[in-house]
Each structure stands twice: as C-alpha cells, then as structure tokens.
Amino acid sequence: MRTLQNLIVKANSIGIVIFFLSAFMFIQSCKSDKKSTQVETVAEAKENVIEIITENMDFQMPDTIPSGWNTFRYKNQSPQTHFFLVDKYPEGKTSEDAEKVIGPVFDSGMKLIMEGKTEEGFAEFAKLPEWFSEVVFVGGSGLLSPDQVAETTINLKPGKYIIECYVKMSNGVFHTSMGMTKDIVVKPADSGNKELIADIVINISSTDGIVFNDSISSGKHTFSVFYKDQIVHENFVGHDINLVRLDENANLEELENWMNWADPKGLIEPAPDGITFMGGVNDMPEGNLGFFTANLKPGKYAFVSEVPNALSKNMLKTFVVPE
Questions:
Q1: Are 144 and 82 in contact (CB under 8 A)?
Q2: What is the greatest pairwise CA distance in the chain?
Q3: Distance between alpha carbon 281 and the CA centroid of its chain, in Å?
Q4: Could you list the pLDDT tens digit for every one of the 323 residues in the chain?
Q5: Is the peptide bond before 104 cis (omega within 30 degrees of 0)?
Q6: Residue closest to 305 by CA, chosen among 221, 231, 218
Q7: pTM of this prediction?
Q8: Helix %, strand %, coil % for the chain, to 5?
C-alpha cells in the first residue's frame, strides 16, 4: 500500500547516425547467427526504457534495473484498472510480506468497512506490524485504464524494492493480496539517463493542492510533478497525481468518491463510467520530483489525487484541451 504512507535520453541526430553506422559495420563483420542479438542490443539502447506489462495480476518486467533516472513504460493489457507503486520496505522484508502479512490486514479491514462496520474496519489496521511505518513509497505510475500505455520517470537509489498495485477487486480484495507484487533490485550502476525537461509543470502540496498552468494544447507533453510536501490524509494515504480523460457522461462526484479507497465503493472495480485513467506520478516523499508523458487529444481532462474530498482540497482540477 502507499502512504498508507509516502528519457528517454535523446541522442542528438549526429550521435544516432554514428551509433547506427558503427553497429551496422560490426554486424557485417559478425557471423549470421550473431546478427539478431546485436540488433536487439541496438534497439534497447535506442529505447532506453523499462517496460512493464500487466496481463492479469502481474508485473512482467526485469528483476534488476539500473539506479538513477529511469523511464517506465507501463502497458495495461488486462481488463482491470491498475497502477504500479515502488515501495522501499525495511531490510529483510519482501513481496511475500506484502502479500501474506500486510495484505490480509487490509483485506480484513476492508471487508468490515464494506459491511458498514467502519469503526471496526479501521480498528483492524492497528494489527499492522510496527515495521510497516518504516515503508517509504518512492513513486510509480498513476492509475491506468485497460488497454492504455503510460510513461513515468522517477529517480531510484540502489537497493531492494517492491512493486505493487492495490486497486480493489469487485469483492473488495486488494490486488496486492491477489499476487500483484514483485521484488526488484536497483543496482549501483547508474542508468546514465538525464532528468527530463518538462513543458508542463505541476506542483502538489497539502496546502495548495494541485497547481499548474491549465492552458494545455493537444499533442504529446512531458509533465513534471514536484512534491512540495507529503502528508498522511484521513484514509492513511499521501497525495499523488492521476491524469484522467473525461467523457461527456463522466461524473466528477463519482470520480472524487472512487479515488478514496476507504470508501466501500472506492478504488474498486469497475471504475466509474466515462473515465479513462492515463497514468501520472504515484506517491513520493516531500521534495521529490517525477515526470510523466501523455498524448492529449482535444477534450476535457482532470488531475486528481487519491485522497478523500479531493475537490475541497484543490486536488481535483479539470482542464480543457481545445481543438
């Protein structure tokens, strides 16, 4: 869970030409059985992203990734809404602890809440182990609807991490408990990637909410998200940024209520009608910076945080992309 807490490097055109000419000459000098391997290596260098695919309750991705700035391309090929959140658990704790120790407590509490026993449900969370308060949430994607692709860029220090999604099944069981976790290792070797340059700047804080210039044109944009602060809200989570496309039948009140997991109908499948989640930047500690990219067509959109009463906290902001 989150706060229940807390690049593509573009080579210049000359560099790309030299790189591919060198690769071509090398391939020509190699035996035919080595050609495909070399071509794959060139493709990876050109892409310079870490791909994550979800087909069910899974994260298909490398077990080990470099430190520093990394861009994650998340493809949701499942029929459910998901996100990925990177957790820094205390030393010795793994995804098994997330599934078998933390997950059952939340499932038990959520079951009671859905039965209308709100006080008893929240009391269940007192059963969380003491070490859970040490978990740090260091970013990830925003919510992503089925058949959508999102790119999020965050900076990771070397160490062991857990990736999870805690959207709820229709019966209230969190995806974490369904096995949607993964252990990853961030190695000391730096990715060599540079911080992205954003054309849309977003600041978020508990005092000012979501602040940005809402004059946004159609086309592809790179958004930066700076966390001026981070607090634990009433439902034990911190604020984040989720980009949403709103259809004509979208209901903002339904969206606001759905973003609160502690609501019996919150963060649960299915997502509200007329809503398409397009990614964003997940929970990060105060002072951290993340990026995401999105291709916007003309229409109505919103930025929303996963907090109760987001509208009154200035954490549900709509904007229109003109024709």
A1: yes
A2: 71
A3: 5
A4: 444 333 333 333 334 333 333 333 333 444 344 333 333 333 333 468 999 999 999 999 999 999 999 999 999 999 999 999 999 999 999 999 999 999 999 999 999 999 999 999 999 999 999 999 999 999 999 999 999 999 999 999 999 999 999 999 999 999 999 999 999 999 999 999 999 999 999 999 999 999 999 899 999 999 999 999 999 999 888 999 999 999 999 999 999 999 999 999 999 999 999 999 999 999 999 999 999 999 999 999 999 999 999 999 999 999 999 99
A5: no
A6: 231
A7: 0.85
A8: 25, 35, 40
Q: Please name the helix (run of DSSP H) or strand (run of DSSP E) that holds residue 28, with its range, or none.
A: helix 13-29
Pick from 202, 204, 210, 208: which is nearest to 294 by CA? 202
Among 190, 204, 177, CA closest to 292: 204
Q: In the structure encoding, which two tokens stand for residue 277, read together?
A: 């989640």
- Nearest alpha carbon to residue 155 among 18, 310, 289: 289
Scanning 48-144, the segments in alpha helix (DSSP H) are: 95-97, 103-114, 118-124
255: Cα separation from own chain's centroid:
18
Q: For residue 236, is it left (φ>0), alpha (ψ between -120 and 50) or beta?
A: left
CB 224 within 8 A of CB 213: no
Which amino acid appears at position 296 of this protein? L
Q: Give the closest residue to 319 by CA, choosing from 189, 175, 223.
A: 223
* Angle subtended by helix axes 35-47 and 13-29, to nearest 10: 170
Gap between the Cα atoms of 257 and 112, Å rounded: 18
